[in-house]
Design a protein that fits this description.
single chain; alpha+beta; 6-stranded antiparallel β-sheet; 6 strands; about 20% strand; rod-shaped
Length: about 180
């Protein structure tokens, strides 16, 4: 049988101090390791939150840019449409208003408004004055041939917006179309 060697009867204070210091260092190291792991996990969570927030902000910025690009494209398309309409309408300046009213691009809005009665509307320009431009408007006027005192009409195109309107006077009653 092997028995452990006998412990000395007295342990010196230096040895006790070294043992206590060793135990304290061991406890501090263990505590530091546990606390360090907790701090690292907290850091990881905060970093992930920051990454997610940065990704969200980037996506919002990209969406905002896409919306701005779409709005810009729509404005450009609207401007192009307005410019084409106004340019087309200007071809009729100095010509009878019936020519303006019968133009397919101009007439489209009135076909939507009057539907099957478009020929009745067009008849209001059977005796028509010349198309003029002034104050940002292109205007044509007309009346029903042989009934100009009772039945008149006016077609108006806003140069800035391309909006097209008409007013019809029939036996003293005024009706407006295209005005929103």
């Amino acid at each position: 049988r092997n028995l452990p060697p006998e412990l000395p009867a007295e342990i010196s204070p230096a040895v006790i101090r070294n043992i206590v210091i060793g135990i304290v260092v061991l406890v501090i190291g263990l505590f530091g390791s546990i606390k360090g792991k907790e701090l690292y996990e907290q850091y990881q969570q905060k970093a992930e939150i920051k990454r997610a927030e940065a990704a969200r902000l980037k996506e919002e910025e990209e969406n905002k840019k896409a919306i701005e690009a779409a709005e810009s494209a729509k404005k450009a398309a609207d401007k192009e449409r307005i410019d084409a309409l106004v340019s087309n309408a200007r071809k009729f300046i100095g010509k009878p208003a019936i020519d303006l009213v019968l133009d397919s691009q101009i007439n489209k809005k009135f076909r939507e408004i009057f539907g099957a009665r478009i020929a009745d509307y067009e008849n209001y320009f059977s005796d028509s004055g010349n198309v003029v431009e002034g104050d940002g408007l292109i205007v044509g006027q007309g009346c029903v041939k042989n009934a100009c005192d009772l039945n008149k009409a006016l077609v108006v195109i806003e140069v800035a917006t391309g909006n097209t309107y008409t007013a019809v006077i029939s036996r003293g009653e005024v009706r407006y179309f295209g005005i929103e």
